[in-house]
Each structure stands twice: as C-alpha cells, then as structure tokens.
Batch of 3 targets.
Target 1
Amino acid sequence: MSALVDLVTSLSTARRAAQLYPPVHPSYREAMDTMVATVASCTADGTGFVLNIHEGRLYAGSQVISSDAPAVASLAKSMESHRVESLAFDPAFAAPDALALAEVLNLRASASLSIEEELAARGVTAIAVGVLADDDHAQRAEREERREQDRALYRQLVAALRVVQRDVAATGSPNLDQAEQMVGGIMSRLLEDDAAILGMASLNAHSEGALFHSINVMIYALTLGLGLGLSEDGLTCLGIAALLHDVGKSAFDLDDPEQAQAAEALHPKLGAEVLARLEDEDPATMLVAFEHHMGMDGSGWPDRAPDYITHPYSRMVAIANRYENLTKRGDTGSALTPDRGIQQLIREAGRTLDPTLTRLFIKSLGVFPVGCVVRLSDQSVGVVCATTAELLAPRARLLFDEHGTELEDPVDIDLTEDPRTILEVVDPEALDLLVADHL
Ligand SMILES: [Fe+2]
Ligand SMILES: [Fe+2]
C-alpha cells in the first residue's frame, strides 16, 4: 500500500513540477525520476497495475487506497474532472511517459479534451486510459428526465392555482386540497435538489405571469424557510401562504390598467378576507396575504397603527416577493440579473425589509444565485448550478468555452477549486439562453 501512496504522491509532485519549472530544472528531473522509480517498484513483478476511481475514491485494482495524503484526493479529483476512470501502467513506463502524464493531467478539463488522445499525441504507449464517458451520458440523461418531471410538477401547480383563482373569482371560497398537495411535492424536491427547483423559479410566462409569480415566490420563500431550519409543518404553512399571497388579485382583470391599479391597492385586504373564510387554514396564511406589502419602516400598505408587528412569514414572503419582482423579466425586459437583485435587497434591508431574514435569504441563495449566467476569468460562460460554502465561488455549469463556442456537453466546475473566478454576470437574453433549460 505504501508503494501506491508513494506513486500517487510522486505523480502529484511531478505535476506540480511541470507547472513550476522548465524541463531542464533539477527539481523537475528529480520529480520525474522519482515517479519512474515508484512505477518500477509497483510493476516489479512484471505485470503492470491499474489505478482506478469509483465514486470519488482511488483504487489500485479492487483495493481502496486509503490515505490522508492530499495527493490521493487530488489525483482522484483530477481523474474525475478529466473523465478518466482508470490509468493502467505498463512495466515499460519511462521518463517521457512520466513527463507526458504530468503535463496532460495539468491541462484544463473540458468536454473537448481527451486525456487518451493527448497521451497518444505525445507518443505514450505505457499508459492505457479508461474513460468515464458512459457514466456522464447516463447522468445527463437522468438529469434531463428529472427536469421533465420537475417541469410537469410546476405545470400541475400552475393548473391547480388557476383553479384556486377561478374559485375565488366565482364563489370567493377556494378549495386548496390540490394546491396543498403540489406544495408538498415541490418541497420534497427542494430538499432533494434545490438547484433544480430554484432554476425553475426563473421561468416566466407573460400570459399567466401572476400564476408563475406566485409559484416562484413560494420557491424563494421555501428556500429561505429551509435556511431558517423551519419544521416540515412550518414549511408547508409558509409554502401555502407564499403561494396564495396575491390571491386577493383573483377577482380583478389584471389586463385592464384601472382594475390592475385597484387590485394592487386592495388585494392584501381582499386576500385576507378570502383566506379567513377557510376554517382549516393556519391563520398565518391569512396574515401573509394581509401583511406582505407592509414595510418594516411603516411604509407600504394597508395602513396600520405605528406599533403594528407583522408575522415572520409575512416578512419572509415580502423578501421573496421583492426578489421575484426585481428579477422577473416583464414585457419591457427590464429585469435585474440575480446578483443585482440581491444587491438591491441589501439596500432595502433594515428599511422596508427585515434585515436578519434578508441576510439569511442572501446566504441561502448566494451572491450569485442559481440560474445566474456568469462570465469567468478565461472568458468562458456558464450558469450557476449550485451554491457552495463560499458566497463568491459557486458551482457552475460551463455552456460556452473561452472562444464563445457552445459546448456540446456542458461541464460542471466547482469554483472553490477551479483557478477561474467570476468576471461578470451576463444577461441570458443577450446570449439567447433559457436558463431553466440548463439546470
Ligand atoms: Fe402582493
Ligand atoms: Fe406578489
């Protein structure tokens, strides 16, 4: 086992040397020689051996190489990012092979780069490369399938909410059973894969903007609720309240400018009245409808006493509602990009918005929220697909390479580990990109 760790460590040293020194430098020669010597000791019985990777762990044959040596984790990561499943070393392994391997593993991983071809181009015959390509393909197919299922869930929720709106307009007393069931579905998917659900919150439809708005506000409110550590019951209540926050608008024809104006002023009170009639509903649902336009500084509406205190869920929905309105692409196309939306929330925190909850919302979404299209320092472009512990370094799915060519197979990178940084946020419309299609 220690010979294997030595080999992996020597490969890591050789890679570093290849980055730091010219080939004539003594440190460089020494690193390559050490690597040749360790491969020689591992292949001393004349049979060669295989380094392979499975679920992020490095194996020699079927034996896991368990070591705290950073070189082991680093090689595993490098093999994964280059879609290399295995490296088989032949006893004929010599210094030029060591040099080529160190060089090739240092190349930046991309969908168009093949380690196998790069080694062959350098005349290497003593290393055979096994490729992970099929796994990638299966993963992508699975992701596509999940995306379709999530979209179907979203469409079902739009349909359920449409029925609620019709009920309100017709009888003033909606049946919420179906919508509540759907909220449960979205919530469990949010727990499984928040990026996929947050990605859908960038969906918009001009014809049914109000329905999409309500669902997106619910997704953002639930994300905040999760960040706050609310119980499942609490999340369900918050989700329903967020979904129905604008239910008071249902009685109005929002295409008529006069009615739309009246709806804006009256919907908190009307919505609260509708929801107060429902016996089984948590009173918080009614309060959120009534209070979601009330600013913390006494601004907003409806009018209230100076010492009036709003429900915490109302403050959460107010933040989600504000963010959705800021980033939603309206008919004029004048939406803020997600990062600008976040910056605007920071400005409003402590004035109209609850500062603690706004901070938590930003922590949950990240400074570059999921769905943000970003240009990286090498000019490649990707979409943020997950947040990480570092606010400024999320995970990104690369869609265009550094020359602006669209990648056939998008590559996911973790910016906490990748040397590239985010240069700027790009308007997806400028690239003719529908963000939700790539999450
Ligand atoms: Fe509203
Ligand atoms: Fe709203």
Target 2
Amino acid sequence: MVELGHVKTISSKSKLTELKKFFSSAKCLQVKQQICDMGRRMWQRTYVEGNGGNLAVRVGADMAICTPTMISKGFMTPDDLCLVDLDGKQLLGKRKRTSEILMHLQIMKRQPKAVASCHSHPPHATAFALVGEAPPTKMLPEFEVFCAVGLAPYRTPSSPEMGKLVSDLCDRCNTILMASHGVVTWSSKSLEEAYWRMEILESYCRTLIAARQIGKKPKTFNAAQMADLMRLKQSFGL
Ligand SMILES: [Zn+2]
C-alpha cells in the first residue's frame, strides 16, 4: 500500500524545476505505479472499456496525479500519467490529462480528507445507474460497512455541473452512482481503498441482480443486526 501523506512543501506554484524533480521522485513514482496497477485491475474486471474510466491521487499541497485521456486503463505505464493543479490545469506529463478530472478535483476540493478517487463503468452497478436507482441496502455486510452510496442525476460527462452534483454528495457518500453513466468512489486513505469500494459495489449489484432472478424477495438485516454492523464499521475507523 502506498503511503499518501502529503508533501506539503511543494505546490502548483513551485518552480518548474522543483515540480519536475517532485514528479520524478520515488514517492510520485510509487503513486504512478499504483495508479497503473489499479487501472489494470479495473480493466481485467471489465469495469472499463475502450479508453473509459479514470483515477486520481492527491499529491503535494494542491495537486493531483491522474490518468491521461484516450488510453486503455489496462495498459498504462508510469510515464503516461499527468500532474494537474486542483483546477485541472495540467502542470506536467507528456499526455493530455483526462477530461473527467474536474469531477475528481471537485471531490478533493469539497472533501479535504479525500486523497484518491476512482471512476469506472462496472456493468452491474451501472445497470442500477441506468435505471436511476441506488441499490437497496441492508442485505450484505461488506457493502454496509465499506460503501455509503448516493445517486447523482445525469449531466454530460466532464462538465463542471456533473462534478458539482457528485461533490455535493461527498459529505455522506464515498461511493456515487452517476445516472446513465457509471460510478465514482473516493477514499481518505488510499487509492486501493477507493478501488475496493468499486469492487464491493459491483459485486453487490451483481449479487442483487442474481437474487432477483431467483424470484424470491431477499432477506434484509433487522435493526439489531444493523447496529452490530455499524459497531464493526466504527471499529474499522470507517
Ligand atoms: Zn465516465
């Protein structure tokens, strides 16, 4: 797991030579490597198609390393990644940054705790987003403990309005379905935890759809069972 503690001394206003040194430092290389690893995991699990999906990790005082546009998330190398400020201005990187970066940055601005975010189109979770419905709750422990889900209305991907609607939900949600689009997750700990939320949500939605095919109403947790799960959640510091 990459330690994401901020190097506060370096910011988007630092000299270009300092920024270049920072962007090629061992710390940033570790972050870039983890972005490539999570991208591969998303592609292997068919959460992204074509050049879809994007990832971002906060670094320095007011910057993020993110994925570029027009690239398969399954086949990135650290050299492909971009450095941007929190307004989305590209500071470094050979490729052009993702057009969806604004949504990630709006989450990071709204939620100072957010260190990483992950966006993809996992088919079963996106099926719920297509019908404009958040998945029902109180059915599986992992989902209750790790994911707090919200549903943002549709806006054109990459638009500031989309980012605003998503970031408006961040106070109470770490896993956000975007109607007719996909999912974005964020974490205060690591990119891997943001990715886990994606995996847990997708697995949950797939299981719900399978349960619907059985044709019987799934059982839900009662109040005492939910209280127990909330205690477990607290013990994990979530
Ligand atoms: Zn998207």
Target 3
Amino acid sequence: MTNLPPPGDHPPSSTTDTQADPAVTPTNPAGDAITDPTGSADPVIDTTNDRLDDGINRCPKCGSTDIQLRASAGMLVCLFCRHQWAEARLDETIENGDLTTLTGTTIGSGAADIDASVDVLTTMKCAGCGAEVVVNTAENMSARCHWCRHVLTVNEQIPNGAVPDAVLPFKITHEDAVSRIEKFAGKRRLFADRAFVSEFTPQNIVGVYMPYMVVDSNASADIAGQGEIQTRKYTRGSGDDEETVYDADRYDVRRHVDFTVDDLTVESSAERANFDSSANTNNIINTILPFDTENAVKWNASYLTGYTSEKRDQDVAHLVPVVEDQLLSIARSQVESSVKQYDRGVRWEREHLDVHGTRWLSMYLPVWLYSYYHESGGKGMVHYIAVNGRTGEVMGSVPVSHKRLLAAAVSVGGVIDAGVIALMVATS
Ligand SMILES: [Zn+2]
Ligand SMILES: [Zn+2]
C-alpha cells in the first residue's frame, strides 16, 4: 500500500503498512450503555401556562389587562397600578433530567406540528363586553377590544405555530438598540453609500420576536479515515533534481464519541432560513447568536406587546436534517483533539451519526432590526442591521459606495481595516 500525499508534497519513498491506530484516547468514558430509542409515540412536554387559561392576562394585583414588558427590568409591568412580575423560567417548570439518558423524541406542546387548516387569524371573545376581536397571529399576539378597551392576548396554544413553548423577553431597550446601531453604522459611514447615510433613521428599528427551535440532544458518532505520522524527512538527488521526501506511517483511524448538546438553536421560519444573499441579508440574524435561552420564560403574550413577532412555519420533521448536520460538525470538532499525533493530518472518509434522543422546544427570541432597501445597478437588495435583544451584539450590512471605498484605500496607502473588508464581502 502506498501513501497518498496531500497535494503539493513529494511522494514518500518508503512503503508503509496500514497499522492499527496507536491512539487509545477514550472518547467514551461512560461506556456504550445507550440503547436505541423506543418506537413509541413521541412524548409531549405540556408547556401551557395554566394561569392564563381564561385567555386573558390580567395584572395579579388589580386585574387590569394593560400590561407590557419593561425590558430594562425584565419584568411585566401593569400600566394601571405599576405592579411588576415575571413568568417562571421554562427550565424551572419542566423536568430537565440528565441529557445522557435522553431517548426518543420529546416535543414541547408549543412545538407540535402545525395544522395547515388553522388560520393565522384568531377570533377571541372579549371577556369584558362579549364582542368578537380578531388577531392576526402572523404578526401580533394581542389586540385591544375597540368597544371596551380590554387588551386580549393569545395565550392558548393554537396549532398554527404562533404560540411557542417559551419566550425570551427583550432586555435591550429601544433607546439602547438605537445607539448601538448608530455606532455600528457610524464606524462604516466613511465608505457607506451616500443615500444610505442621508436616509439613515435608526429610530425606525423594530423589535421582532423571531421563531426558533431550541434542541437538546444525546448522540453518538463514529468517524473513520486515515491519518499519517511522519517518520523521516530527507532530500534525494542533487542540484535541480534535488527533492524533499517524507516517509510516513499510515493508520486507519476510527473514533467513537458520545456527546450531549444543550440548547442548539435553529431557525423555524423557512423564509428566514432561506439565505438568498443576492436579495437580502437574512443570515445576519444568525450571526448574532447565541441567546441565553436558559432564561426563557413560560409563554405570556404580554411580553410581545409593543413588539412584532414572526410565526413559526417549520415542524420538527423539517428541522431534523439541519440539527443532524450540526450534530455531525460538533462530533468532528470533538474528536479533533484526539488526533493531534497525526502530524501529517487525518482524512476523514466515513461518518455515522446515531441520535439517541432529542428534545424540542419552540421559542421566540428577541431581535432589534433595522432594514434598508438599497438599489444599485437596477438590482434591489434589503440590508439589515440586527441587534441581539439580550446581549446587544450587533451585526449587519451597510450598502457600500465602491467609489468612496477605493478613494479611501488610495488615500491611506491601501490599508483598509478588516471590518471594512468583511463589509465588502457581506455586500458584494
Ligand atoms: Zn395592576
Ligand atoms: Zn370588549
């Protein structure tokens, strides 16, 4: 058997035998005790907020329905009596258990499959006066009764994907988000398109709750390939014919890894997951991950008052391939440290993932969005600047004037900072 050198290397002169993998790195300290998931019906975690089962969110102190989130305090506030309170963290109200024992598929009641026959328009009967009020759950989760001024909130888990298991409330205020976006755009002002600069109105940012699935997993992976360890390096021939030769031993490398992943976060809106970079900069939203999803609270539509929301349109089954793909890359990175002795590298050829168990919860996560429609050369493109509503992390794209960028590059001797180059890539 001969070695297969990486491109550009001279072939080694010696023949090598395929040997047993010398590494005895135990990546499976717990042993192989995991069994296959059972074929029984998927268990469901009931995440309904019992306190709101009359369909109305009232202030626990005075009974008023005028309630909204006070982001700076992370609390719901009654606009009538100023009483403040918060819903319990979802993590506290459901059994979390040890992820290494997670088997099968467990789904939160708010992450259940979407029933296509259920309309996004929900009609609610006002408990104040009996009138019927319609809420468009594609964007809003509450409406004010125009007869008696009661605020009606959608708290029942209707099977149209609009009510998730949990919500992670905004923590970054509108004012704070505006100043972060100003700062972000300010740094790029020099090279930004002039129309963008003159029309820039960061006050117009919108607070949006975006739909995500937050997934816990218990998995194993088997990865196999060939690794090489250099045994000798020397030169052969002389003058123009001189060449460097490497001898290496080649090994069959196999790794097995058992691992658990807590709170993997994936988009559950097909439109947002569609990263058509020629027409929009949707992928911006994923660059402001991660969110502190462990602090998500039980559903209460009042957290959304004053914000807009985007309804989930993807079921668990649609997102399984996305999650499995991410689990495989996690597995690959987990074995990396155990193959360091292969100084000439390892070429992975086969990989196999065994998912023993997953648990899915749907959540609304908070994002401040500034959008700007820019037309250049007859082609329109929507640019976004997004602020993580929890951490304040900002990411976005700004339309660039290539003329100004070029002029600046020339005037400073061709030195452009890395941030600007990233921006050019993001907008090209
Ligand atoms: Zn009150
Ligand atoms: Zn009413």
